[in-house]
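Here is the promised in-class demo. Please do not try to memorize the tokens; focus on the logic of going from shape to residues.
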């Protein structure tokens, strides 16, 4: 059990409406230090909106957000990321025309504002090594195979050495070998760099194998929370995924 008693992030009644649609409804989410927390749910369940809310890209209609013990409700994304909460986007974001090295360097900018070039270069090299990107450092990012491009997105975020790393569907389009290797990277950065991870992912097998706890969203609401074993047998979760109504 990795939980050491501290809560890195807490949302209370977090809600986001778009007109008549409630994308995230009254969400009470806790992320505990040292865990890999999965956030799952069918398409449109509110996972990316939750990411946008906790990283400041979208302002809540109601509710509060506390990150590392501070009330950050309404804060701008840069202010939240400087605290150590860094996120990736569902659709890979990096500069296609730039080398992998320069993309990863961009990821160090906010967190290493006072560092010199040698220190930054060391961070880039270490990050590339962990993600298996060393052979690609001088390649133009946009020309690389899809699986490598996904890793570049993660590398940019991890280069900041976040306290809390939020990954939105990082495994999309990866083959089975790449998925296995990437899950090992998640475990390694959690264990060696004290990096807590929030993982949105549709790959159920991967989520079940890597996550300590899982939160299930459905229609913007928290349907269930528990260990992978608990979630796997939760009747409401099974019903939501099968698209059937479950009156309980
Ligand atoms: N900017 C927006 N304007 C209007 N509606 C939005 C906006 N962003 C999200 N929504 C709606 O909010 C709901 C939740 O969307 P969200 O992208 O958070 O779901 P998701 O769980 O990430 O889905 P997916 O698995 O497909 O990525 C959806 O019905 C979506 O259409
Ligand atoms: Mg999404």
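The designed amino acids, position by position:
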């Amino acid at each position: 059990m990795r939980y050491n008693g501290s809560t890195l992030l807490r949302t209370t009644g977090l809600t986001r409406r778009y007109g008549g649609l409630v994308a995230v409804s009254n969400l009470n989410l806790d992320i505990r230090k040292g865990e890999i927390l999965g956030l799952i749910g069918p398409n449109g369940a509110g996972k990316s909106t939750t990411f946008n809310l906790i990283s400041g890209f979208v302002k809540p209609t109601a509710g509060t957000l506390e990150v590392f013990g501070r009330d950050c409700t309404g804060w701008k994304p840069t202010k939240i990321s400087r605290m150590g909460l860094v996120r990736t986007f569902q659709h890979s974001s990096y500069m296609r025309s730039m080398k992998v090295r320069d993309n990863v360097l961009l990821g160090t900018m906010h967190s290493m504002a006072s560092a010199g070039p040698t220190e930054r270069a060391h961070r880039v090299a270490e990050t590339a090594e962990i993600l298996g990107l060393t052979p690609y450092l001088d390649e133009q990012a946009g020309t690389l195979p899809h699986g490598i491009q996904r890793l570049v997105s993660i590398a940019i975020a991890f280069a900041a050495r976040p306290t809390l790393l939020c990954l939105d569907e990082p495994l999309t389009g990866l083959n089975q070998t790449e998925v296995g290797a990437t899950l090992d990277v998640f475990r390694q950065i959690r264990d060696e760099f004290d990096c807590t991870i929030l993982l949105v992912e549709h790959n159920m097998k991967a989520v079940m194998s890597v996550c300590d706890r899982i939160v299930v969203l459905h229609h913007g609401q928290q349907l269930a929370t528990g260990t992978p074993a608990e979630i796997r047998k939760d009747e409401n979760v099974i019903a939501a995924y099968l698209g059937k109504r479950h009156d309980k």
